């Protein structure tokens, strides 16, 4: 283990910050294209942080977890940095909380794991069965009106979670209180959007020099306004994105760019924009096209009913998301998908989505690494993660996620970087350039006959670390193997 950690530390010395090149690929400072495979690490409830010591199947993200990720070929996490954790009092930043986030970022760096900092919210606040915004930032009047359901509250005014679980969390977005609070945020009522911008400004200031922080995701799954006030905002494709989100994102963008003009800003469409109406402009204008990424999620909503129907939906959704990415002329990143169990139907869904991601050369983070006591999920906290309660892997799920890919490619353009789950075949083709290295993760040990029986022009495949290989050679590289 000590030798393994030493190797990781040596690798991390040569790692470098990530930018977007002219083709909107993620690229390091040596000119190599980077592909990211990883997980969400989102602890939504207080203290808004995973445990950082030891291993726990539900709550930890520690050195042991970093070792697990790195050993299995994963190189990125989407880490929750909480607005309610960072600003528990109006206008006052909790530096101790942000220092703990920074500690996790630097711990990940030791294992060459990159980080997207994500301000996660679902249902806005715990008083609405959700999370994301502090109590001082909300106004509560009649939750869960107009829903007629039994809802008990504790001494702090928080709904009892057992009552919240009476229905899928997403349906609470149609309540009056949640919609009204989102409207207040977007209109900057009582300066709420400015406080949110100040929060992001401080996060960016603390992380702008951390090489493994890819960038900042402004908000997870924003709501399309107030359903009780305007059904048009909810139903009309793209309407809420233009009316609410672009002005809001532009405000937060300006706060971040005060202190960090280089790192990438990630932004999402409203959570009901499943058909990909998206945006007709980026948030920072032409100057920042190469420093922005459209963050998108792919869920069909009926994963437990039919994987076949789901995958037809996923195919359409992915096409439409990619069309929006191309129209905006910015990067794209699949920041959420999955939340499935450990069965063959779930594996079929994951295989389809990830094969599709390969075809578009897209990076991804699965939802999520562990359950983290998640009370707002369409799955359950016990089945959506990677581990069972005894700490063992959910093996079918792991076998789908742990797939061959070239994660560092010395080229300006990737012709093919594709694994086909059904046939277990991997294809990699590109034209090399001087000054960088190409590295591949291969889950199983392979021998030369698995590679060179097909084609590998002017190249060699060298084992540099367990399950990690380097392609050595120049010119047109075409590499094939079958697991």
Keyphrases for this structure?
single chain; alpha/beta; globular; 31% helix; disordered N terminus; 13 helices; 483 residues; five-stranded antiparallel sheet; hydrolase
Q: What's this entry about, in short?
A:
Helix content is 31%, strand content 19%.
Molecular structure report:
The chain is built from 13 helices and 18 strands. α7 packs across α9, α10 packs parallel to α11 and α11 packs parallel to α12. Helices cover 31% and strands 19% of the residues. With 483 residues, it is an alpha/beta fold. The longest helix is centred in the middle third of the chain and has 22 residues. A hairpin with a 5-residue loop joins β1 and β2. Strands 4-5-6-7-8-9-10-11 form an eight-stranded parallel barrel, surrounded by four helices. Strands 3-12-15-17-16 form a five-stranded antiparallel beta sheet, with no helix packed on it. The chain has a three-stranded antiparallel beta sheet with strand order 13-14-18.
Uncertain spans, ≥5 residues at pLDDT below 50?
Answer: 1-15
Name the overall outline. Answer: globular
Strand content: 15-25%
Report how far the terminal alpha carbons are from each other.
27 Å
Mean pLDDT score, rounded?
92
How many strands in all? 18
Helix percentage: 25-40%
Task: Indicate the radius of gyration in whole angstroms.
Answer: 22 Å
- Strands of the widest sheet, in order across it, are 4-5-6-7-8-9-10-11
Number of helices: 13
Please state the structural category.
alpha/beta
The main sheet comes to: 8 strands, parallel, barrel
GO molecular function: hydrolase activity, hydrolyzing O-glycosyl compounds
Signal peptide: 1-15
Keywords: Hydrolase, Signal
Domain Glycoside hydrolase family: 58-371
């Amino acid at each position: 283990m000590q030798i393994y950690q030493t190797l990781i530390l040596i690798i991390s010395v040569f790692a470098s910050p990530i930018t977007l090149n002219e083709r909107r690929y993620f690229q390091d400072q040596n000119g190599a294209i980077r592909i990211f495979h990883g997980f969400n690490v989102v602890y939504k409830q207080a203290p808004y942080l995973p445990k950082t010591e030891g291993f726990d199947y539900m709550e930890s993200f520690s050195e042991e977890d970093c070792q697990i990720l790195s050993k299995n070929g994963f190189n990125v996490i989407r880490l929750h940095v909480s607005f309610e954790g960072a600003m528990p009092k109006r206008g006052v930043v909790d530096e101790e909380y942000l220092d703990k986030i920074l500690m996790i970022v630097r711990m990940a760096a030791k294992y060459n794991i990159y980080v997207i900092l994500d301000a996660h919210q679902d249902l806005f606040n715990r008083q609405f069965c959700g999370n994301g915004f502090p109590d001082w930032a909300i106004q509560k009047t009649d939750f869960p009106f107009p829903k007629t359901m039994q809802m008990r509250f504790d001494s702090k005014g928080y709904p009892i979670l057992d009552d919240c679980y009476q229905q899928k969390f997403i349906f609470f977005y149609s309540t009056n209180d949640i919609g009204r609070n989102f409207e207040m945020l977007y209109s900057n009522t009582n300066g709420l959007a400015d406080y949110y911008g100040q929060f992001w400004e401080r996060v960016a200031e603390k992380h702008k020099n951390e090489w493994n922080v890819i960038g900042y995701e402004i908000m997870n799954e924003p709501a399309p306004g107030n359903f009780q006030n305007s059904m048009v905002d909810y139903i009309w494709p793209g309407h809420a994105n233009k009316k609410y989100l672009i002005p809001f994102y532009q405000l937060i963008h300006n706060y971040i760019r005060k202190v960090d003009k280089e790192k990438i800003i990630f932004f999402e469409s409203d959570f009901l924009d499943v058909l990909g109406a998206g945006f007709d402009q980026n948030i920072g204008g032409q100057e920042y096209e190469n420093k922005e990424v459209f963050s998108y999620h792919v869920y069909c909503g009926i994963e437990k009913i039919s994987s076949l129907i789901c995958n037809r939906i996923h195919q359409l959704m992915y096409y439409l998301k990619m069309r929006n990415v191309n129209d905006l002329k910015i990067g794209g990143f699949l920041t959420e998908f999955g939340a499935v169990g450990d069965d063959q139907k779930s594996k079929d869904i994951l295989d389809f989505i990830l094969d599709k991601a390969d075809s578009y050369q897209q990076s991804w983070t699965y939802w999520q690494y562990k359950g983290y006591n998640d009370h707002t999920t369409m799955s359950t906290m016990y089945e959506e993660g990677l581990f069972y309660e005894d700490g063992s892997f959910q093996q079918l799920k792991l076998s789908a996620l742990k797939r061959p890919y070239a994660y560092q490619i010395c080229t300006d353009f990737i012709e093919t970087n594709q694994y086909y789950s059904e046939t277990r075949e991997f294809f990699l083709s590109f034209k090399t350039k001087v000054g960088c290295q190409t590295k591949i993760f291969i889950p199983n040990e392979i021998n030369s006959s698995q590679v060179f029986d097909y084609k590998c022009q002017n190249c060699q495949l060298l084992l540099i670390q367990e399950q990690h290989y380097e392609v050595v050679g120049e010119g047109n590289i075409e590499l094939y193997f079958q697991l």
